[in-house]
Design goal:
This protein is mainly β. The chain has one domain. It is 0% helix and 27% strand. The protein has no helices and 3 strands. Strands 1-2-3 form a 3-stranded parallel sheet, with no helix packed on it. It is globular and about 40 Å long. The mean pLDDT is 89.
């Protein structure tokens, strides 16, 4: 059984580039407005209240 690999990616300029953006064996989960810079994303989460 393969293990699920998940990268939770935010917008910190310090760590954003460390995410495995091109490794298809990872699921990419973006938070907040990371979708603006991410090449791909499997799921999106917004942790702040809307409005």
């Amino acid at each position: 059984m393969d293990k699920l690999k998940i990268a939770i990616v935010g917008t910190s300029p310090v760590t954003f580039a460390l995410a495995p953006h091109t490794d298809e064996s990872w699921e990419m989960w973006g938070i907040h407005d990371a979708h603006v810079a991410m090449r791909r994303g499997d799921r999106w989460c917004q942790l702040h209240p809307l409005g």
